[in-house]
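Record Segregation and condensation protein B, 191 aa.
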Amino acid sequence: MNPPDDYARAVEAVLFAAEAPLTLDAIRAHVGAGDLRAALDRLEHDYAGRGINLVQRGDRWHFQTAGDMAHFLRRDREDSRRLTRAGIETLAIIAYHEPVTRAEIEAIRGVQISKGTLDVLMEAGWVRPAGRREVPGRPLTFVTTPDFLVHFGLQSRRDLPGIDDLRAAGLLDPVDLALEQLAVEKADDPD
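=>
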C-alpha cells in the first residue's frame, strides 16, 4: 500500500485535530483546493478495519473508534445523560417526523410535554429549533442535529430503523403489536 499524498495527509491531519465533525467546505477551508472526495475516499479505505475509522455522518466527516473496539473505552465511564421516557419518545418523534412542532409532538404522544423535555434534548445537542411554520400562531418547529447522527452512529436519518426492524429486534411493546394486529383485522373485515 502506497502512503497517501500530501493533500490526503493534510486532510487526515485536519480531521484528526478537529474538535467536531467537519463539512467538506470546512475541510477545504483548511487544506485548500484539491480532489477532496478522492482524499476522503482514500483515507476511508486506509482506515477501514483499523481501531479508528473515518466516517461520514450526515454531511460531516470525522474519525471515530471502530464499533467493535468501543468496549475497550467503556471501562469506568458512566453516561450521565439519562433520558426520561418522555425524552426518548419526544426525540423519536422529532427524528421520524421532522420538522415537527410542539403541538404535533403532543398529538402523537397523546400527552403534553414539559418545556424541560425539549430543553434537555437541545442541551444534549440532539435537537434544535428550525424556524416557524407558516400557519396561524407561527409555531416553532424542531429538527435533529448532526450531533444526533454522530451520537447514535447514523449516517443520515434514512438509517433510522423501520417498523420491521423494531419488530425483529423485539423493541415494540405487546400493546403496539396488538393494536397493529387489530388495525389489520379491521381493514380486512368488509363490514
